[in-house]
Specification:
31% of the residues lie in helices and 24% in strands. By secondary structure, it is of the alpha/beta class. The chain has 3 domains: 2-23 and 135-269, Cytidine Deaminase, domain 2 (3-Layer(aba) Sandwich); 29-114, Roll (Ubiquitin-like (UB roll)), CATH 3.10.20.10; 291-352. α5 runs parallel beside α6 (220-228).
Length: 371
């Protein structure tokens, strides 16, 4: 059971008040199923699953696809060893009975079965690797009040769902909550593909200044598709998976789950959610600390001549302006980062500078000559 749950810390926001609390995520990891026959071993499927009862999952999958007809068609299952000699926890080799050569033409499309989607065209775990470099992006900054309204806004455009109750939806929004496009499909991933396709047709890509809202949960594949469209802010009605949170943190994507009933959980990128008061400032400070190595040099050069009191005042003014009017200063995180770092460097220089020794006046007092 422990492998099915991943410990996690989340910021729960309710009525605009945020609190960091320990939480649990459903673990999501890929399982590659390989088939061993007289012709050798070949990968036949990759499924995103919760690690538990993998052998039953593999047998059920092969039976459902018509590859085996009875349990006796499978004589053994094992996990290959990695380079360190340890069993691969995400690869399972299914050994077929001797003389049994199943018809694998049904697998020629190279299954990538997902807990969310079905068939997506990848046969090995290596194909899941994302060919994209992690970069820090500004993204939209959104108030909780705007986020609270997204589920109702999405539902209002689900015309087929209202008639059938059986469709998922994906919506695209501006930071102020303006709805740009909503698409429906029986598959959550298909609805998102339609939304991205619409954005591509209408010249909206990249979507780095938009918010994507999906019905249901946020899985790895949802985050992967958003990443490829440069989405930086993803919301879901239900929970994210462990792999989705990991991907969001790696690629600086704000991930909001359980968005309903004026409540939300922030799993990644909390600095883009504009909480009132001091709660909103803490993620910005954390971001500055993480980005010390990539401070914008122009900001440093512009303020390097200021004295400590002037630097402190400038940093405080920008900080307060960012809280009161979030979109007033372009690239405010970078500006604050530059100011904060120069301020810190100036303070350290002052603290480490040797004090000048006190010079005592040793000049003898002048005396008036005696008469």
């Amino acid at each position: 059971m422990s492998g099915s749950i991943t410990p996690h810390e989340v910021i729960i926001v309710q009525e605009d008040v945020g609190q960091a609390v320990p939480d649990s995520l459903a673990t999501e990891e890929p399982l590659e199923i390989r088939l061993a026959t007289g012709d050798g071993i070949r990968p036949v499927a990759v499924t995103m699953r919760t690690p538990d009862h993998d052998e039953e999952l593999a047998v059920g999958f092969l039976y459902g696809e018509g590859i085996i007809e009875r349990r006796d068609d499978v004589v053994a299952m094992h996990r290959p060893l990695d380079r360190a000699g340890r069993p691969e926890k995400n690869i399972l080799v299914v050994e077929m009975a001797r003389g049994l050569e199943p018809d694998l033409r049904t697998l020629d499309r190279h299954f990538f079965t997902s807990s969310a989607c079905g068939v997506c065209g990848k046969a090995g775990i290596e194909a899941l690797l994302i060919k994209k470099e992690p970069v820090r992006r500004r993204g939209p900054r959104v108030r909780p009040e705007v986020l609270y309204g997204l589920p109702d806004s999405l539902h209002s455009r689900q015309s087929v769902f209202k008639s059938t109750g059986g469709l998922h939806a994906a919506g695209l929004y501006r930071a102020d909550g303006e709805q740009l496009v909503v698409r429906e499909d029986i598959g959550r991933h298909n609805a998102l593909d339609k939304l991205v396709g619409s954005s591509l047709d209408n010249g909206r890509l990249p979507l780095d200044e938009c918010v994507v809202m999906v019905s249901g949960r946020a899985s790895y594949e949802i985050l992967q598709k958003c990443l490829m469209a440069d989405v930086t802010f993803v919301c879901a009605v239900s929970a994210p998976s462990s792999l989705a949170v990991s991907l969001a943190r790696q690629f600086d994507i704000t991930l909001v789950g359980f968005l309903r009933d004026r409540r939300l959980n922030i799993s990644s990128g909390a600095e883009r959610v504009l909480l009132p008061g001091c709660a909103a400032t803490l993620p910005n400070i954390a971001s500055m600390a993480l980005l010390i190595s990539v401070i914008p040099a122009p900001i440093e050069r512009m303020v390097s001549g200021l004295r400590f009191p002037q630097l402190f005042l400038a940093t405080a003014l920008v900080f307060v302006a960012d809280l009161l009017i979030p979109d007033l200063i372009p690239f405010v995180d970078e500006v604050l980062l530059g100011l904060f770092t120069v301020l810190l460097g100036t303070w350290r220089a002052r603290a480490s500078a040797p004090r000048k020794p006190e010079v005592k006046d040793v000049t003898p007092p002048t005396t008036s000559p005696e008469p």
